[in-house]
Structure formats: C-alpha cells, structure tokens
Amino acid sequence: MKSRLLTFALACLLAASGIQARNPAQPSWLADAVFYQIYPSSYQDSDGNGIGDIPGIISRLDYIKSIGVSAIWLNPVYVSGWTDGGYDVIDFYRVDKRFGTNSDLVELIRQAHARGIKVVMDLVAGHSSDQNEWFLQSREGADLRYSDYFIWPSFKPDGDPLLNKFVATDAPRGPYYIKNFFDTQPALKTRPVRWRCGANSRTLSPFGWTRGWTVSAWIWRRAW
Ligand SMILES: [Ca+2]
After folding, report:
1. Residue 31: half-sphere exposure toward Cβ, Cα within 13 Å
2. Domain containing residue 213: CATH number
3. What is the whole-number distance in angstroms between the Cα of residue 217 and the centre of ligand 1?
4. What is the pLDDT of residues 143-180, one digit of tens each?
5. Which of 107, 121, 127, 174 is deepest in the core (most CB within 10 A)?
6. Per-residue confidence band for 27, with pLDDT thresholds at 50, 70 and 90
7. Residue 100 alpha carbon to ligand 1 centre in Å
8. CA separation for the pair 78, 75 (Å, rounded)
C-alpha cells in the first residue's frame, strides 16, 4: 500500500499544471492529461482464469476513450515475485505470463495510441526483486557486472535513521544489503550514496535499456 501511495502522489505531481514551469523538458500533453489508472490483475480478464490481463485492457480501450481519458497509467506488468503486488520485479524486460506477452503490451500501446491515448508505464526504478538477475549476481561478489547496482554496507552503524532498511543476509557479499519496503525489494543504487559505514558513492544508471519501447512516458518511482 505504501508504494502505491507514493506512486499516486507522483502521478498527481505529474498531472499538475505547474510541472511544465518547473521542467520545460516534460512533454506538453502532461499539463492537462486525464489519467486512468489500471491495476491489471483486477481490471479485465479475457480468458476466464480470474486474473485481469493485457488483452482484457485492449478490449476496454473504446470505453476508456469514451469517458474522456487521455492517458493510461499502467501499474507494473513485469515478471514479478508477487510479494508486493508486482512491485518486486524479477525481469524488467518481460511481461508476466499472467498478463500476456511482450507482444500483447506492444499491441496495447499501438491500439491506445491509435485512439489518441498515451500509455504511462509504472517503472519500478527504486528497487528490484531479490530474485532479479542483477541482485543474484550482486550478492555473489564485488567485481561482477551488476555488483554495484545494490548497496552492501559492511556494518550496521548505531543510531542511523535508516536502520530499518538494513537486511541481514548470509550472501557472500553480506553481511547487509539495503532494502526499500519489503526484504524482497533490495534498493537499487540510482544516485550517489554515502553511508557512514563506507559504501562507495558511484552513480549508476541501470535503466539504460528503455530503448525501443514506444511508451509515452515513465513513472519514475523511488522510495528514498
Ligand atoms: Ca486472465
């Protein structure tokens, strides 16, 4: 629930008319966009298995258009461990089977655009799942490709206001990693971090993979 509240707050911020004055790089359509949030699991089920899916959303696009919506905010559809409603992402490159396929997502975006509706993907940028390939590699050592995508404090300092973010682990990289919400959501190091316990402070940009996706925008979420 906490993560969804944060997302909601950010969406309100995006929809506010003042955003263009603060950041001229924002697309002009955001100024007066009418958003329609879709949490896929509980929206429209197309195959009768009791779980909403992307073909179900496609079947509702004419209705969505008819009520004056100009942008869909699509809650996470990526492969997930489902410990936090899809916000613990195992694979940022693939649509979870419960919702369909990557081709279904491309078709949703194509058909939405054909109706003049933007699609905003809920990009969970603050953390991954502890089953994500990046974290599984990072936990093994300090000199691998994804080693520095996460934060591995060497000890737990007394009195740190973020002590509830420390997760004890028996991983080779341990003894701690930093989480955002649940223990299954290790925090991605997307900005310089200087912990008193000595984590390094390099800036990383693990989301260089957005090329080729014809979405209209991303909701950029982070928790701290
Ligand atoms: Ca279904």
Report:
1. 11
2. 3.20.20.80
3. 26
4. 999 998 999 988 887 776 677 889 999 999 999 999 99
5. 127
6. confident
7. 8
8. 9
Helix (H) or strand (E) holding 133: helix 133-138
39 and 145 housed in the same domain: no
Check: pTM over 0.85? Answer yes or no: no
Residue 40 CA to ligand 1 center (angstroms) comes to: 9
> How many A from CA of 49 to the centre of ligand 1?
5
pLDDT above 50 (res 13): no
> 45: domain range?
2-125+207-220
**Distance between CA atoms of residues 89 and 3, nearest Å:** 13
Distance (angstroms) between ligand 1 centre and the Cα of 46 equals: 5
Domain count, the chain: 2
Beta carbons of 45 and 56 less than 8 angstroms apart = yes
Is residue 205's pLDDT more than 60?
A: no
Verify that 119 and 16 share a domain, yes or no: yes
